[in-house]
Design a protein that fits this description.
Helix content: 25-40%
Distance between the termini: 45 Å
Number of domains: 2
Number of helices: 7
CATH architecture of the largest domain: 3-Layer(aba) Sandwich
CATH topology of the largest domain: Rossmann fold
Order of helices and strands: EEEHEEHHHEHEHEEH
Radius of gyration: 18 Å
Strand content: 15-25%
Number of strands: 9
Strand order of the largest sheet: 5-6-7-3-8-9
Structural class: alpha/beta
Shape: globular
Length: about 260
């Protein structure tokens, strides 16, 4: 028997911006698969098309050529978490977390219960009626994560969600996300600049080239699941981080 059909498959994917003669080749050609329940991290130099890839997966951009297919059974299969939180300042924390459920017309009682569950899981229960302006950056990102997971997506897309946070908060949220996604087996495509983040979270780490971005390497962190943030102190962690950095450094140096 062959391998199960992947949750996400990109084939010869490209994206070009602008019009001739001022076009910019931003992405590809790129091929990628993500299996059901897999956590795939993508790293690459700035401007290589990582976020473009994620926006195509989310349906926010169309590819110029090639295809990106998502195999799901849900009418609302994908949730996305942005670097800038993407939550609504005029809505309470509870209303923000419930937002996707409201869009899906989930009955209010059920939506409130699911929102309350995720608020509790992410340590936000005491802030249900607060507004985002009163929250720290880390708490706002927890709200964004709770909102995305409350809709029970088949595919979670994350675009550098912790990049704006300080190092301590970033580590805490990495470990929280690791625990949640391991428990739920959430299929995740995660864009990051942080090699440490990619190794801690990922089943696979994909390295992209400089623009136009292509996948030039794949590494599997040698840490079985369930894993914890304690792997950061392992010699194999340091060795893999160095190997990935060597790959990235070659791509980041101007030709």
């Amino acid at each position: 028997m062959g391998e199960p059909y992947p949750k996400l498959r990109a084939t010869d994917l490209t994206r070009t911006f602008g019009r001739t003669p001022h076009t910019v080749d931003a992405l590809g050609p790129l091929g990628l698969t993500v299996a059901a329940g897999e956590f795939v991290c993508v790293v690459g130099p700035s401007g290589c098309g990582k976020s473009t890839l994620l926006r195509i997966a989310a349906g926010l951009l169309r590819p110029s050529t090639g295809t990106l297919e998502i195999r799901t059974t849900s009418p609302h299969p994908v949730a996305m978490i942005f670097q800038d939180y993407g939550i609504y300042d005029w809505k309470t924390v509870q209303a923000n977390v419930r937002f996707g459920l409201d869009v899906q017309r989930v009955p209010r009682r059920e939506a409130n219960a699911r929102a309350a569950d995720w608020l509790a899981r992410l340590g936000l229960a005491d802030f249900a009626h607060a507004y985002p302006a009163t929250l720290s950056g880390g708490m706002r990102q927890r709200v964004a994560i709770a909102r995305a997971l409350a809709v029970e997506p088949e595919l979670l897309l994350m675009d550098e969600p912790f990049a704006a946070l300080d190092a301590q908060l970033r580590t805490i949220l990495q470990d929280e996300l690791l625990e949640i996604t391991q428990a739920l087996h959430t299929t995740t495509l995660f864009i990051t600049h942080s090699l440490e983040e990619a190794i801690v979270l990922g089943d696979r780490v994909l390295v992209m080239s400089a623009r136009p971005g292509r996948i030039i390497a794949e590494r599997r962190p040698p840490f079985p699941r369930p894993r914890t943030g304690g792997i950061r102190s392992a010699p194999a962690f340091t060795a893999l981080k160095g190997e990935l950095w060597d790959l990235l450094r070659k791509e980041a140096v101007p030709a």
